[in-house]
Design a protein that fits this description.
The structure holds two protein chains of two kinds. By secondary structure, chain A is of the alpha+beta class. Chain A has twelve helices and six strands. Chain A has a four-stranded antiparallel beta sheet with strand order 3-4-2-5, with helices on one face. In chain A, strands 1-6 form a two-stranded antiparallel sheet. The radius of gyration of chain A is 50 Å and the shape is rod-shaped. Chain B has one domain: Up-down Bundle (Formate dehydrogenase/DMSO reductase fold). Chain B is about 70% helix and about 0% strand. By secondary structure, chain B is mainly α. The chains are: A alpha+beta, B mainly alpha. Chains A and B meet through strand 3, helix 2, helix 3 and helix 4 of A and helix 2, helix 6, helix 7, helix 8 and helix 16 of B. Chain B: This is Molybdopterin oxidoreductase. Chain B: It is a multi-pass membrane protein.
């Protein structure tokens, strides 16, 4: 690039205390053939653009361009990601649900337009962090209205000074004398740097998009595992530091009903309640062969471990382990207890040691067990005390 | 030059205009430009008074309490909150909507009033915009801590990942919300910063210490007040105002869609977007009033933030308050007119159910209390405005609580009905958000010029004429 040299004329500066005076002075100086380079003021002086002959800013076009870019990118990306790259139907909406894309598209349009126009503003107004500010007048950001101008050809500063004085200038000074300056080459100016960056942009985009076309979804994610990968799942019988009672397994809250639909019993545990049950409840089930079999099976599975298969206290727990001997079920004591009371004991347990089996046996099974105990008692009361392993049920309807 | 309004009312012709409303000067005290500079920057240049230290001690304690509660939430889990399976959103989302709404006034003042050429905005816009930023920060914390694992919050952004080609669901209002709030924050911050640059330059020129000068030089971007820059600056400012105006409307619209696009009776309503936007402006202006009445008093800025400013804002509060009241009535009408038993039940339950106290608190604060602003005496008496603005703040918090909790706690299945009651942790986080808000605001008043000096200087001259 050839370096050109040209003559730079003397420059001067004048400051005013009032925006209207500055405006008037600018108009006057321009009419007199001087070149007003710029004015400096603590707030924008309206009408100054016209007075200086500054053409309106073209930043709105930049804003529009960025907005269009944001809109295109937003719609393009949403369509690509939800219909092409990851087509997943959600909420019965079509893959390309344009109305649902509007909000994000709008936000991105505003975001890009806003940031873009600000960035363009900083670029064209050459605003970036600077420790030293050129052309700074101490009052420019406080209460002074300043103009900087180049003298017209063949004019002396003293003549202008008198003029400015008449226009109400508070202060004026000659900044530089005529001199020759070198024209900076294109590549020395920020525009040159910008052009370089722009030229590199396609190459950069190309490099950046390589991973996009070369994705390997078999590879494990490079993400810090914030705990999602290894959840702490509590086991039913573990101890727990946070749950009530120190156990993971929690008792159902009081009043919880069974999901099988049986209504709760109208009896509380305890002996008096057992006696009341004896008075108020009657066995709703008539003996049949099927019920006999079921009652026998349940009795032998649950009660016989203690009470013995014949109800004679010969259960394995009692015989082999020497546990507390239970009540003999075929004794007259139990024989005289009404059905309802036996049912209550089967549900809530005996008066001292025996636990209730309402949680193991369904309500029907408990009544069937009661039926079966009655059969055992009948068999035990028979004089020929030679009970078969399966005593014949009395009153069985074949 | 007379104000247009003076011409319209003929006040300018009568020769002796009544000293009220539009006829009052924007800035009192016949100030010169350098006086404005000196007074606006004074708080940033002298040591803070004792009152300021007391205030920040209180707000910082509140903030610490909130930080402790957030720590509890993150280490022990969301179980520390009073949420249950039925009421899955309560305090957190209420606070989120509350704070986002507060933010709206800042943008409204800085952008919409700018476009409408309401010059009284100049002395309050800086502080109102700062308030927006701080309120949006407070708002943002709530959904993030509600995630339970906030360190994974970035999952809400569409970033390239190797989990299969897995992208966020762009059809979900919750994602719209992420986009809207973050865009809103970024654009508000940019707008605020652009407005600050000329004042930062003034502050730089006045800086006494080297450090301050360096920092301010970096942020003022070499501003020298050149007319060419001013000309572009004004263009950019206007463009940003133009962009922020639809943006601010979109933000609360999208927030309301978090609710409206669901099928929960009480939420599923097309009235939500305008209703939420009006509510946001309403609550935001109330908060600006609360803050400004304190700030002008404490910082001796009564000549900048005059009763004329306060009065203009009370009128906005009155107008939006009535829009909100109309929305409440419309909701009831729609519920009845829909003929849908669930809708009808939800609204009866709101007004008469277990949370009726919250509902009537909301109606009392939001519909009745602004009615006092019909009286000029109330509109021009700062302490009365202050009290009413506090009522509106309370009412608008309850509005969000009522919408969220009463709609959730009894929906379709009576077997899943439940009650909600906040835990101490939740209340502490809420207090903490106020702590964060006021701490940031207090720091702001000492570090940056609370009033846009360059804009105020621009309206000084007009006030003289």
């Amino acid at each position: 690039m050839p370096n050109t040299e040209h003559l730079r004329r003397s420059r001067f500066r004048a400051s005013f205390a009032d925006p209207d005076r500055l405006l008037f002075a600018v108009k006057h100086l321009r009419a007199a053939g001087h070149t007003v380079l710029d004015t400096y003021s603590p707030f924008p002086v309206h009408g100054m653009d016209e007075a200086l002959g500054v053409r309106p800013s073209r930043l709105p076009r930049a804003c529009l361009a960025f907005a269009a870019l944001g809109l295109t990118l937003a719609f393009g990306f949403q369509i690509w990601s939800s219909a092409v790259d990851y087509p997943l139907r959600m909420g019965g909406k079509p893959l390309i649900a344009l109305p649902a894309f509007i909000p994000v598209a709008f936000e991105l349009t505003v975001l890009l337009a806003g940031l873009g126009v600000v960035a363009s503003f900083f670029a064209v107004a050459r605003m970036w962090p600077r420790l030293h500010v050129s052309d700074l007048h101490p009052g420019a950001n406080d209460d002074r209205f300043i103009l900087a101008a180049e003298l017209a050809m063949d004019t002396q500063f003293s003549a202008v000074a008198a003029d400015l004085d008449a226009l109400g200038a508070v202060e004026m000074s000659l900044l530089v004398e005529d001199r020759l300056v070198k024209g900076a080459s294109f590549w020395d100016r920020p525009a040159g740097a910008g052009a370089l960056i722009l030229a590199c942009l396609p190459a950069f985009l190309l490099v950046a998009s390589v991973p996009l076309f070369n994705r390997d979804f078999q590879k494990r994610n490079l993400a810090w595992d914030g705990g999602m990968g290894a959840p702490v799942s509590a086991q039913a019988f573990d101890a727990s530091a946070v749950l009530r009672g120190g156990l993971v397994l929690q008792a159902p809250p009081p009043g919880t009903l069974s999901r099988s639909g049986a209504a709760p019993l109208a009896f509380a545990p305890g002996k008096t309640e057992a006696e009341r049950a004896g008075r108020e409840l009657i066995n709703p089930y008539q003996p049949t062969q099927a019920r006999f079999n079921r009652g026998k099976a349940m009795f032998e599975r649950v009660c016989a471990t203690c009470h013995g298969r014949e109800g004679d206290n010969n259960g394995s727990v009692v015989v082999n382990r020497g546990a507390f001997a239970p009540t003999v079920l075929v004794s007259p004591l139990v024989r005289d207890m009404p059905d309802g009371r036996l049912f209550h004991i089967a549900t809530y347990g005996g008066p001292m040691k025996m636990k209730g089996y309402g949680d193991l046996l369904s309500r029907e099974d408990r009544w069937l067990v009661v039926l079966y105990i009655r059969e055992l008692q009948k068999a035990a009361a028979r004089p020929t005390s030679a009970p078969a392993v399966t005593p014949l049920p009395g009153g069985v309807q074949p | 030059m007379a104000h247009d309004a003076d011409v319209l009312t003929g006040a300018a012709l009568s020769g002796n205009p009544e000293q009220y409303g539009h006829n009052l000067p924007l800035i009192d005290g016949n100030k010169s430009y350098s006086q404005v500079t000196a007074e606006v920057f004074a708080p940033t240049e002298r040591r803070p008074p004792a009152l300021w230290w007391i205030a920040i001690a209180i707000t910082f304690s509140m903030l610490s309490l909130g930080a402790w509660a957030v720590f509890q939430t993150l280490t022990r889990g969301i179980g520390t909150w009073g949420l249950n399976r039925t009421v899955g959103w309560a305090f957190d989302i209420t606070n989120f909507v509350f704070w986002v709404g507060i933010g709206h006034a800042g943008t409204l003042i800085s952008a919409i009033l700018f476009l409408f050429r309401q010059r009284w905005r100049t002395s309050i816009n800086r502080a109102a915009e700062a308030m927006t930023l701080f309120a949006v920060m407070c708002a943002g914390t709530f959904p993030i801590i509600h995630m339970g694992r906030p360190w994974l919050a970035f999952w809400a952004t569409p970033y390239p990942n190797s989990r299969g080609p897995l992208w966020v669901n762009f059809k979900s209002p919750l994602l719209w919300d992420v986009m809207a709030i973050s865009t809103y924050f970024i654009i508000s911050l940019t707008f605020w910063y652009i407005g600050l640059i000329p004042d930062l330059a003034t502050q730089r020129d006045r800086a006494k210490t080297k450090l301050k000068r360096t920092v301010l030089s970096i942020f003022s971007l070499g501003w020298n007040g050149s007319n060419r820059t001013w000309s572009r600056y004004e263009t950019v400012y206007m463009l940003l105002a133009g962009l922020s105006t639809p943006l601010v409307v979109s933000v609360h619209t999208i927030v309301s869609m978090d609710f409206a696009t669901s099928v929960i009776p009480g939420w599923h309503a097309t009235i939500f977007p305008p209703y939420f936007v009006a509510g946001a402006v309403f609550s935001g202006f109330a908060m600006v009033l609360t803050l400004m009445i304190i700030a002008r008093k404490v910082m001796n800025l009564e000549e900048y933030i005059t009763t004329r400013h306060l009065e203009a804002m009370t009128k906005v509060v009155l107008a939006t308050g009535m829009i909100v009241g109309l929305a409440y009535a419309t909701e009831f009408f729609t519920a009845w007119y829909s003929g849908n038993p669930y809708e009808r039940y939800v609204f009866l339950n709101r007004a008469l159910g277990p949370f009726a106290w919250a509902y009537w608190m909301m109606v009392g604060c939001n519909v009745l209390s602004p009615q006092f602003f019909w009286f000029r005496k109330v509109r021009t008496t700062p302490w009365m405005i202050f009290i009413l603005s506090i009522f509106v703040n309370i009412g608008m918090w309850f509005e969000r609580f009522v919408i969220i909790v009463t709609s959730l706690h009894r929906d379709y299945l009576p077997s899943s009905w439940a009650m909600y009651r906040p835990t101490f942790i939740e209340v502490a986080i809420f207090i903490g958000s106020f702590g964060l808000f006021f701490t940031l605001f207090l720091i702001f008043t000492r570090v940056l010029p609370m009033i846009a000096a360059s804009e105020v200087k621009g309206v000084l001259k007009n006030a003289e004429h």
